[in-house]
Amino acid sequence: MLVNGRELFQAAKKGGYAVGAFNLNNMEIMQAIIEAAEEEKSPVFLQASQGGIKYAGIEYIVAMARAAAEKVSVPVALNLDHGTSFNQVVQCVRHGFSAVMIDGSQLPFEENIAITQKVVEIAHPSGVSVEAELGKIGGVEDDIVVDARDATFTDPKEAAEFAERTNVDALAIAIGTAHGVYKGEPKLDFKRLEEIAAATDVPLVLHGASGISDEQIRQAIPHGITKINIDTDLRIAFSQAIKDLLAEKPGEIDPRKILGPARDAMKEVARAKMRLFGSAGRA
Predict the structure, then answer these.
(1) Spatial CB neighbours of 125, under 8 Å, sequence gap ≥ 6
(2) 144-146: strand order across its sheet
(3) Active site positions, annotated
(4) Spatial distance between the Cα atoms of 251 and 248, rounded to a whole number of angstroms
(5) Angle at Cα 112 formed by Cα 110 and Cα 115, nearest 5°?
(6) Residue 240: pLDDT over 80
(7) CATH number attached to the domain at 5-232+264-277
(8) What pLDDT score does 217 carry?
């Protein structure tokens, strides 16, 4: 069965590692992630964005996640990624998500707190963890667009106040990452990360981690990062594998033979991330 995301957050924080959160849109992506987790004996967050839910359908997402969780021996949580609508959060809780993220980072500080408190009030009694976001992470996440000029780093004092007043289970912070493909080499603000971690005990989340160097990832985890989101790297592996297959066999029409290699490619990416994050062998 799916586990409350809080279990994964707290175990990672205590163990000094981070759990990978991988976005999915179809069965092959789901299989790639869950097979990697089982083989690496790693806890894992399966997560669907609002766009992913719209594409696949919430019933299909939940059914696939439940089937996957029952098949493996590792703890699996199903998370709503970047929920901006309270009604969307409610729907996910009702349908069986075990974790949700409410993204009020575009709102003024007090309004962000207010909507996050509202989500916590309905999610926690249902055994569902809540992740929030403070500070704007640049780039594009489905229909959420934040220009680099408007991306605002998280303030450590605000992070402490936000965590205390909302009672969230995890907090996504802005320290220099972005969603999508990076145009240059990203550099994380480790001093800010250290200050945020010192100001609050809440588990911290790193979004937009695809494209961040392994060295920077390794440096971030000891300073409180307990969940790391990966989407773009899976997309790149998926699309490249399909391009390569069709270039070699342009007449291939069997979806299984086209999507199979793409699934295998994504699985290897997920396995490598689990080892990098230190979650391999932690289930």
Answers:
(1) none
(2) 144-146, 138-141, 178-179
(3) 81
(4) 9
(5) 110
(6) yes
(7) 3.20.20.70
(8) 94
Say whether pLDDT at 61 is over 50.
yes
Whole-prediction pTM: 0.91
Output 8 or 139, whichever has higher pLDDT.
8
Give yes or no for residue 180 having a pLDDT over 60.
no
The counts of H helices and E strands in the chain are: 11, 11
> Which helix (H) or strand (E) segment is 69 a member of?
helix 58-71
Facing residues of 146 across strands?
139
**Distance (Å, rounded) from C-alpha 42 to C-alpha 197?**
24
Contacts of 169 (CB under 8 A, 6+ apart): 5, 6, 9, 99, 129, 130, 131, 202, 203
Question: How long a stretch of residues is the chain?
Answer: 283
Return mean pLDDT, the chain: 92
DSSP letter at 41 equals: T
Which pLDDT score, from 0 to 100, does residue 137 have? Answer: 55
SS3 state at 173: strand
The DSSP call for residue 159 is H
User: Mean pLDDT, to the nearest integer, of 234-245?
Assistant: 97
**Half-sphere exposure at residue 153, Cβ-oriented, CA atoms within 13 angstroms:** 15
Which runs of consecutive H residues, i.e. helices, occur in 202-254? 214-220, 232-248
Amino acid occupying residue 218: R
Any idea where the domains of the chain sit in the sequence?
5-232+264-277
Flag whether pLDDT at 139 surpasses 50: no
With contact defined as beta carbons under 8 Å apart, do 51 and 143 qualify?
yes
Q: Which residues have a Cβ under 8 Å from the Cβ of 72 and sit 6 or more positions away?
A: 34, 37, 38
Report residue 76 as tokens: 């699996």
- Give whole-number Cα distances, 198 to 22, 42, 160, 184, 201, in Å: 27, 27, 9, 29, 7
Q: How confident is the model at residue 149 (pLDDT cuts 50, 70, 90)?
A: very low
Cα 202 to chain centroid distance, Å, stands at 16
Bridge partners of 77? 45
